[in-house]
Amino acid sequence: MRSLDSGLLYASNWDPSQSVLVNIGNHFDLKTSVFQAPRRGIYSFSFHVVKVYNRQTIQVNLMQNDYPVISAFAGDQDVTREAASNGVLLMVEREDRVYLKLERGTLMGGWKYSTFSGFLVFPL
Amino acid sequence: MRSLDSGLLYASNWDPSQSVLVNIGNHFDLKTSVFQAPRRGIYSFSFHVVKVYNRQTIQVNLMQNDYPVISAFAGDQDVTREAASNGVLLMVEREDRVYLKLERGTLMGGWKYSTFSGFLVFPL
Amino acid sequence: MRSLDSGLLYASNWDPSQSVLVNIGNHFDLKTSVFQAPRRGIYSFSFHVVKVYNRQTIQVNLMQNDYPVISAFAGDQDVTREAASNGVLLMVEREDRVYLKLERGTLMGGWKYSTFSGFLVFPL
């Protein structure tokens, strides 16, 4: 069984009062939306960033410290809501910062229903 | 190591005879497609609901008991198959029910290749 | 805590020198892109195969040995990058081979930003 300081995070905004559903250990900073790892290990991260209708393509990067690890895209111009999704296993050092960055485009139309999740798969 | 009553679930219909690939503990009810948690803990859930060509937008909700937790959308009118996907970490109480609900649109054209998966990340 | 031979894999090509970020135990063969399970258990696999603009629909299968388990599709003709994504929990026997197969279409325009990840949820 994994310990409770595993570094769980989750963000959504279905309902602002529920915008973070799970945050065991409080390693996900609600103000900055940055996750800071409580320990070294392999983590699983996944995200679904939903853009509302606009004519721009978005590119979302998953960042580890200042380095972009993976990207996802949403570029259809004819649909109301579309998600830029991806997921990854990462080797994370203690105190590494993991977060999402909007590399291209805007979310001016809103990003309701977006999620960002992660958990420790096992410590190293 | 996590115990085998962790509450695994998975549904697809690549092949009807294989429509549930993994169901450790049988906490996923094949008739109702509802997962009932065998214990309190943090669970990871993800889904990919594939709609076949039709002119409707679908919205799929992940439900915890009677509450919608996250949503996903598929609304492109010009593609044959498109997935409404999302994923989440959830704090689940023992006997909570977790399931998918088609909030908007229809899957009349079919939903082959759809998946719904979950597992206990750690017990609380 | 799970042991380090859990069978982790991850592939991306954000940067060719970083094309495999995590490969604990080296069960993911970099030449063939095949994962061979080090032990029997329940594994979680997910993939996001990103196609670059072309006019073809792609179908990507997740294969267990010679059997297709799940599929994902990307078929929009008007967007620059689009992902065929899906994920699954699988009962895997020791030495089973798990890999992606492009069942339909081509990735001639490139597949940069694609990912394929998996980890042992628990051994059986």
TrEMBL record, chains A, B, C:
Species lineage? Eukaryota, Metazoa, Chordata, Craniata, Vertebrata
Stretches assigned to the C1q domain: 1-124
Q: What PANTHER family does the entry give?
A: CEREBELLIN-2 (PTHR22923:SF50), CEREBELLIN-RELATED (PTHR22923)
User: Does the record's keyword annotation contain Secreted?
Assistant: yes
Question: Biological process (GO) annotations?
Answer: maintenance of synapse structure
Q: Which GO terms describe its cellular component?
A: extracellular region; synapse
Location(s), subcellular: Secreted
List the keywords (alphabetical).
Answer: Secreted, Signal
Q: Does the keyword Iron apply?
A: no
Stated name of the protein: C1q domain-containing protein
Residue ranges annotated as coiled coil are none
Q: Which InterPro entries match?
A: C1q_dom, Cerebellin_Synaptic_Org, Tumour_necrosis_fac-like_dom
- Source organism of the structure: Oreochromis aureus (Israeli tilapia)
One Pfam family linked to the record: C1q
